[in-house]
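Q: What does the predicted 3D structure of Glycosyltransferase subfamily 4-like N-terminal domain-containing protein look like?
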Amino acid sequence: MGLKHQTPKTSSSKFFSFRYSTIFTLILLFTSFFLFLASLRNVQEPFFRADFPQFNGDLRDAKFPWNKLCFGPTSEKLKLAVFSKTWPVGAAPGGMERHASTLYHELAARGHEIHVFTVPSDRRARWDIHEGNLHLYFAANDHGSVNVSLAFEIFNKANANTEFDYVHTESVSLPHWRAKTVTNVAVTWHGIWYEIMHSKLLQELLSNLKGGQLAELHEAMPRLVEEIRFFRSYTQHICISTSAGEVLVNIYQLPQRNVHVILNGVDETEFTPDQEAGAKFRERHGVPSNASVVMGVAGRLVRDKGHPLLYEAFSSIVRRHPNVYLLVAGAGPWGRRYTKLGPNVKVLGALEPLELSQFYNALDVFVNPTLRPQGLDLTLIEAMHTGKPVLTPNYPSIVGTVVVDEEFGYTFSPNVRSFIEALELAIRDGSSVLKRKGLACKKYVVSMFTATKMASAYERFFLCMKNERYCQYPLPTDC
């Protein structure tokens, strides 16, 4: 949706009109981001200490991630309806799909009845899946996306037998115009337009092209206003980073008691330190035994994941450090370009889920050059679970939630010069310092970013929404 203007009478007036609106939009963007970052500096410290907070009261008043608390077992079981954009199949799915799979398998294993309305990520026709307490209904349209009307028809049938205790949607998988008709509905936001505007701004600053992204920036503000208006169609809001939670309260003006932070978690049994597996992975992909530092990046090899940034930075690094290697896991247009950097870059293609842990274990440091300061990238968490430090941009969602201490790795401003400086620092520290940082990472993520902690927090959230007794913390059964 873009702003509508009257047709200008002259090309000169058209130019100045566009220039004025563009400058005005950029001023608003810079001002809002400055105020946002300033506010984060004021609230970040008490929320993200490594120790657990001493909290006693109503969980709806918690201003920190629920993952920091320790919830006890419950005998009460829930019936939950879930709307998810896709369900992961193979190695291609992104973080939102893998998050959904991990969370709902965990909740089903706890005895809760979970009904997921979705489509397979490969967009192929598949039969519904019913495994114990987990029920998957594939409701696709002709394009392979979720057919909301069909999904809602199936939902109503399942609800008619025994009513759902709560409805949960991953972002806008349940559109706001449908959410209005549901009484008990919560949404988990994996990215919001306020953060997307930040992404577009960073990509424009990095780009040498003139006028390409400026048009998108010009249209971003109306999209933001539209999003702020429809967010109230959802009853409760779950954010996967505290920075997003701050935005929903301070910018989107949602009630504090309707905004909650539950961080993503990954299967702690799948991503574990394994030095032998890492050594075999290096050997299999031609990394010499005398490599001084092995870096790695994983995900889709596309522009907004920061690959133009990494390509330019590492092309400078490899000229000065011939014993430094880069492993590139993923598929996309930038894969072919990385091969031009020579034998120090190993392009691995998309890895199967079972190979990911081996990949992380083969590294000395994991690099995430993303230009998308939104959500919470699972690759950072997975790498830290295998005992690896990370090197990543200093976005609010990352430095306020994941890399909360310099002992966990390195951060940089999303530009080539700052990126190179961070890479040089990691190389200068060497493998011994990187190992020490990796141990600190492992200790931290085990306390915060596990599938068990995530599922426990979501379980307590839905119980709290059903019965206010569960909103009190601690209960006698809590640890």
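A (community wiki): The structure tokens above were generated from the sequence. The domain at 59-264+452-473 is CATH 3.40.50.2000 (Rossmann fold). Confidence is low (pLDDT under 50) at residues 1-21, 34-50.
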